[in-house]
Amino acid sequence: MSMNSFGHLFRVTTWGESHGPALGATVDGCPPGVEITPEMIQQWLDKRKPGQNKYTTQRREADEVKILSGTFEGVTTGTPIQLMIENTDQRSKDYGDIKDKFRPGHADITYFQKYGIRDYRGGGRSSARETASRVAAGGLAREAIKAIAPNVQITGYMVQMGPHKINRDAFDWDQIEQNPFWVPDAQAATDWATYLDGLRKSGSSVGAIIEITARNVPAGIGAPVYGKLDTDLAAAMMSINAVKGVEIGEGMSAAMLTGELNADEIFMGNDGQPAYTSNHSGGILGGISTGQDIVVRFAVKPTSSILTTRKTITKSGEETEIITKGRHDPCVGIRAVPVGEAMMACVILDHLLLHRGQIGQNRGVIGPQS
Amino acid sequence: MSMNSFGHLFRVTTWGESHGPALGATVDGCPPGVEITPEMIQQWLDKRKPGQNKYTTQRREADEVKILSGTFEGVTTGTPIQLMIENTDQRSKDYGDIKDKFRPGHADITYFQKYGIRDYRGGGRSSARETASRVAAGGLAREAIKAIAPNVQITGYMVQMGPHKINRDAFDWDQIEQNPFWVPDAQAATDWATYLDGLRKSGSSVGAIIEITARNVPAGIGAPVYGKLDTDLAAAMMSINAVKGVEIGEGMSAAMLTGELNADEIFMGNDGQPAYTSNHSGGILGGISTGQDIVVRFAVKPTSSILTTRKTITKSGEETEIITKGRHDPCVGIRAVPVGEAMMACVILDHLLLHRGQIGQNRGVIGPQS
Amino acid sequence: MSMNSFGHLFRVTTWGESHGPALGATVDGCPPGVEITPEMIQQWLDKRKPGQNKYTTQRREADEVKILSGTFEGVTTGTPIQLMIENTDQRSKDYGDIKDKFRPGHADITYFQKYGIRDYRGGGRSSARETASRVAAGGLAREAIKAIAPNVQITGYMVQMGPHKINRDAFDWDQIEQNPFWVPDAQAATDWATYLDGLRKSGSSVGAIIEITARNVPAGIGAPVYGKLDTDLAAAMMSINAVKGVEIGEGMSAAMLTGELNADEIFMGNDGQPAYTSNHSGGILGGISTGQDIVVRFAVKPTSSILTTRKTITKSGEETEIITKGRHDPCVGIRAVPVGEAMMACVILDHLLLHRGQIGQNRGVIGPQS
Amino acid sequence: MSMNSFGHLFRVTTWGESHGPALGATVDGCPPGVEITPEMIQQWLDKRKPGQNKYTTQRREADEVKILSGTFEGVTTGTPIQLMIENTDQRSKDYGDIKDKFRPGHADITYFQKYGIRDYRGGGRSSARETASRVAAGGLAREAIKAIAPNVQITGYMVQMGPHKINRDAFDWDQIEQNPFWVPDAQAATDWATYLDGLRKSGSSVGAIIEITARNVPAGIGAPVYGKLDTDLAAAMMSINAVKGVEIGEGMSAAMLTGELNADEIFMGNDGQPAYTSNHSGGILGGISTGQDIVVRFAVKPTSSILTTRKTITKSGEETEIITKGRHDPCVGIRAVPVGEAMMACVILDHLLLHRGQIGQNRGVIGPQS
Predict the structure, then answer these.
(1) CA A189/CA A187 separation, integer angstroms
(2) What domain range is B42 assigned to?
(3) Which of A189, B193, B319, D169 is the most exposed place for a label (fewest CB within 10 A)?
(4) Where do the annotations place NADP(+) binding (chains A, B, C, D) (predicted)?
(5) Contacts of D77 in chain A (CB under 8 A)
(6) Averaged over C11-31, what is the pLDDT?
């Protein structure tokens, strides 16, 4: 049992604090024979890296990943892979004035109540900085997936920021890389920029909804009852800092549907495989993939670091007020996009590996000969 | 690793199919010295039991639980507790005409694609019948919680059925036990009865949202980063049949909040403990309890068993149509209430036990002396 | 985490006490498509069953196994398999006079010190009766192994009883089934019968060494560093009641060898696979199988239930004496043979499954083309 | 599930190869509030460090440990602790001539058969170098134990080298630190030096038996049935490179005892706690500690790296011969002493933590009031 680990066969343990010398991911169970270089992982870390535009925290981190173990001549050996990222811009003096005050909406009070340790330097393990380790592990998972199911494509994007939602009718995959919000809707990108500029200048923050889609995942991966693909995805996404809700397919809106509307009718596709008239299920039935797009959404709350004075208490129980002046993200949802992608990659790989182990040739084949 | 188990220290493995001789829960890690009788567990199974009113499936099951191990003279011994429920009303002939057809929106197609086995008798492990095992384990968890944190109260209720939501201003804890929907709003109970009668008569079904609240959970339980209290709750709820979304506190609506609105301000309560002006966090910050109410919601989709013809395929890949005539629930959300309560009880107990093991006397105390 | 479970992918949880209504094994992770009937499992339970000859306890148990879940039409479905054995001859009055006294060499004192519960009825979970559950799970494992690696043969036998060792030069596989001691040496069988008769009549008991050999296990299964095949075997065997030592290949005698003597030289066998001039390694190098026979030995201590008076204390701390008059085995090593076989079967299956999951086609092939 | 991890609550994952840039241990579950400095860990690494005398490999490694995470101001915070040791003397050219040949008695052939990767640089994960990570984790475990059970003392020593055993009658705890073999017998130390000098000069190697004793472990820690203290110790010791056998208390010799001789009789000690007339059990009954010394022994085989020519094969299946000229230990048992101590420390700490979590105040008290 490890509280800082996730995955069944592809097992990732993240370690490291926001203001320590380094952080990273210890990955056990990566199959041997996967070609991997630091550059392959670095591209995803660069996507998550702070300070790339005015909408994310101005903390400057190189976020350079080093592979300390588990590879030989650029190929995984089947042994644990240590991915380390050294912290370079810790600047802990920024945090000095919150040494004794708890921040409303922040985990510093509950960490203190649990551990009895007040690590005031930027949140320790509860900092969003921990997600760099996840993104590194996710980059590795993407390469391992390629070796097993090369057509799988995992893409994240924002679908809501504050009250502003994307226009689903204008959904355009090609737009995602064209704007700082990873939003698949050109008009939304423009509108959101204006909105977020205002928030940023006023020292406020706002929440968001991110959607992650995995395309071309083979049918038949996943497992009952507590190792369901959607159970693992829910845990993976909810474990990300600031996430307060997770949805698969219809999500919370499934409550409003009747059985007639919700049923994705089945026919035979051109490729001789079962196909569906709709995807209310989000690509998962009974915890097992249908072969349709796997669609997960999660909501992140706004960061607690804002320039408005809030009421709080000190360690010694005195009532006081606080303003957080550190470098922070007006909308943490932006940088949550590559984190959500990484978690999806890890879960999909894990279930592809489980499928190999538990099923082998026993899969049911739908068609004339069966 | 077990795909049919959940929990870290309080470890529950459910087993059994809808149409086999029995099903149950193997529980390891229950503390010794907990007084437990079959009757204490039975009350919760009776709450979940089908056929109690016209709104749930007319399958008749006694759902009588037997304790086969782990107790001596009515007290737990610290060894595994086997809770068994024999199936009595299997009536598998009902299911004969769906032997070769897959039901749209049902897991039978993905189970076949994964396992290569077509157990057409009522869904096997994917049947809602599996949740009886959870409810039994949850009943045990409730008794063990009493021995550690006697003030904890876990209550589930419906907050939405189809398009109909409760009126939060009329929220009344005492109403919950007064109607077949476990709804805390007398007017909603009346309205929903009419609505569901119509659905039932037309052979349709509808989704729902259930909320589970745990009161008086001590501050400081939970764990970073993948063993967070909310991560475990998300997994626990998403693992329930038909669940498509899970929310903690504000949930998906957190996306719409600004940092100012979301921050639950802190002051010192009358009991000398930290208190909060609001509970947007749902009682959890950084994966650790704040001492406020823990609030979780989940959405269930409508059952796929409806009387309207839907398009589907057979095992041999032929396109056809299907109507499901079995005994089913027009709104599975009703019977999901005690299941959600059981999952909450198991997760809370698990983290209370973890807290004892990992923290001991090291907890941080907020107040003058600290 | 479950203290009553073992295995990684083939996960067995045993439950039940010596004097409760039933005991059994909850097995998760058995591959689908394995043909299994109660009879296939029963044969191994019959081998372990007490009261079959004068050398084992006269407790009479039918030890009839029921399969409560996880199969459909005689084939495993991939879901948890519940194997239940009802207790029929509990006769707990036998144990009445040891209600307050602890038995020297028995776990009743440590169980009490750990759990604070004094279940005086025959040892509870620490009773050898728990091993019936293991044997049931092992019987299932044997059938699953057949579906993956049909040539594997697992055979257990005694190699020492008290001071009497077998003559390795007279080793005869065919003798094993011909005598009540499962000893591969006809002369030893005769000698031991005389020896044990004497012990039995004097109300004494004695220890033994059991060897389990697995033949035709493919090379390349196992795993570093804490999931080694020998690590898992050591844990599996040490977990059996009364076991005090475990050896792989040369075992403790490896201490006396020089590097020259210990090195199993390698050549190419007639089948084009690597072959070895000797098997000091016991078929395992670096935790991974070599393809040679896997050879494990374990020592069991004598049972503490003897007719000689021993000094002990009561629950209230008074010094006293005890004689144990219950029905017991003069040499528990005899009935440990099928238990050791069962544990070997479970571990081998588990690693065959892990191999499928983690390695796939990546195995190294030794030969001209590689 | 992680093949490179051990422990239930105190969970250690080791990573890194003999010839990579670094290796280390990721430790999750260490309690908060433990004072720890690199120096506290370094002392144990120094004990294991190669090249300290002529009896161990002449590889020169600083083996300097860095604490990269999990502490704040010299105290553990409850979050994962990353212990990293950089490799400095890799000198991989030494290994060039064994690039294509497999070493008899070495894991290189089975690693290749499992993973399909031939990392010829000094054994990769199967190298004894991996044990440095264990020793680092063990050093941390020792400090955490002090915070919970300050009287626990863990001491390892050699009891046999090749055919030479210690004289138990001359056992002297104070001798252990006085000789390069950690042997508690001055005469043996002298004799063994002569013996090993001879072996070393002839380029041979020999096995050994190491004993680890834990004194003052409280009664009542451990767990049935697969999480027994002895089960965990057997796994922990068998997972160490080159170990072929593990014994608890009487170990394999238990086979030769009668029930009368094996029973450790019980009386009341001067401290009002149960005491025993002997310790055949090695301090463990039914997997739970008795409060007596916990005594574990393990045998290591001789290293396969010897100067005598042995027959072997190449990757392409050609038969050939091999001599291993690298820097190696004539008796790896010497450096196995601190490794065994480390594993004992990790297991004891883990069960102390489990005890806190699962038992609390429920322990049985033996004495007048109970």
Answers:
(1) 5
(2) 5-359
(3) D169
(4) 48, 54
(5) 17, 115, 117, 119, 124-125
(6) 94
